[in-house]
Amino acid sequence: MEGTNGGKVNISAPAGGRNPGNYFIKILVIIFWIIVWECLSRIINEELFLPSFGSVVLTLIELVQKQEFWSSIANSFARILAGFLLGFASGLMLAVASYKNRAMYELISPLLKVIKATPVASFIILALVWISSANLSILISFLMVLPVSFTNILSGLESADKKLLEMADVFGIGRWKRIKAIYFPAVIPFAVSAVSIGMGFSFKSGIAAEVIGRPANSIGVNLYEAKLYLMIKELFAWTIIIVLLSVLFEKIVMVAIKRYGSIQDRAADL
Amino acid sequence: MDIRVDKICKSFNGKKVIDSFSMYIPEGSITCLMGASGVGKTTLANIIMGLVQPDRGEIIGLSDKRIAAVFQEDRLIEHWDASRNILLVSKKGVNEVEVEKHLSEVGLADCKAKPARELSGGMRRRLAIVRAMLSDYDLLIMDEPFKGLDDELKKQVIAYVRSNLKGRTLLVITHDRKEAEMLEARIVEMA
């Protein structure tokens, strides 16, 4: 699915993904599941258990007209994004350090395995003791993304062609040129995968942290209140928003990586 | 300074590949290292390049020598075009015009902008040779450099190598005595 071409990073959709016919199929699939939702809602006939699709859309329209809706999204998004970027950058730095120094890997890897295996809820409750609820989602997103980016980027570095690295040694190619020519194409597919997985993790865990920590004016607080006051339509509406935000942000990051790949290709100032 | 390979021994997994081999490479010479498959020619080249450590023996005269190589496999950056592959290792001052001139000397004038992965086996071989020739080196090691080239191209590429050596040392590993003759090289047999 991913690869490199002339230094450009190609992150393509599955075969035929850009085909208009495929978009049509995707739309049909969405319509199918909306119909299933609507049918189930009518069969259950109880808005408290499963509201109809139409009523959720109406609630969503009401929500988007409120200013608090946008400030909640902005606050949550900024915190989760900060946690994601910190986690990704830290994972990248630790992966590079571990690749260069085995002792560093032995030191770091057990800690990251523990982070990976620990339930999010344990972290959230523990972290609430240490830091303010406003910063909780930053820390939780960071902790969720860190092991994923570390593992993926380290795998990417280790997948760099050993024969090309030998060639670089013989010709005495400098560090920056090695990164551009050999490491960058090897790491990019793994980094893309880390972004894709890490993005989902950070959104789910970040919102969960907000639901428990309840920082003012956040998506998590809105979800909590919707649950507390049995506002099921709001609960569904907010969930749809979270899914859309997660997908949108993942797309933005992918486009940024793609663009970075093209910039690398153009900057052939060797 | 001449290079002296002195009583080099190397084993892999208990199997002796090179057993106390010595040879002498005069500075500025063209030397062909010949021998049957499996006698350790490529291993010796890797030892000279510093990619493999010998079990015993030493190589004298390598310190401060800049090395370039044409490996048995081409070892090109597959998604980069021919020109960029060359500029990756080239010495200071080499520009696109010079790259183009060298590529045309080996019959690759039209390949400058083509990614390495789109080139045929023979084209890749010639690109690897031009890449090495344009790098900054005192000793050039070529492992089966003319493999896959027809006689006419071989003649053209050998002429190109000879005219661009400019007094630097060349060590060629080959099976083909005719290549050694065309290079007017000293021959060292490895048994």
Quick structural summary:
The complex is a heterodimer of chains A (270) and B (191). Chain A has 270 residues and is an all-alpha fold.
Biggest beta sheet summary of chain B: 5 strands, parallel
Number of strands of chain A: 2
Largest sheet of chain A: 2 strands, antiparallel
Average pLDDT confidence of chain A is 85
Give the fraction of residues assigned to helices of chain B: 25-40%
Output the number of helix runs of chain A. Answer: 10
Characteristics:
heterodimer, A: 270 residues, 2 strands, globular, B: 191 residues, alpha/beta, 5-stranded parallel β-sheet, 6 helices, 8 strands
Structure notes:
The complex is a heterodimer of chains A (270) and B (191). Chain A is mainly alpha-helical. Chain A is 81% helix and 3% strand. Chain A has helices spanning 20-44, 53-64, 67-100, 102-117, 120-130, 133-158, 162-171, 175-213, 219-228, 232-266, and strands spanning 2-5, 8-11. Chain A starts with a strand and ends with a helix. Chain B is of the alpha/beta class. Chain B has helices at residues 41-49, 82-89, 96-105, 121-133, 151-165, 177-183, and strands at residues 3-12, 15-25, 30-34, 56-60, 67-70, 139-143, 169-173, 186-189. In chain B, the strands form two sheets. In chain B, strands 5-6-7-3-8 form a five-stranded parallel β-sheet, sandwiched between helices. Chain B is globular. Classes of the chains: A mainly alpha (270), B alpha/beta (191). The interface between A and B is medium-sized, with 19 and 20 residues.
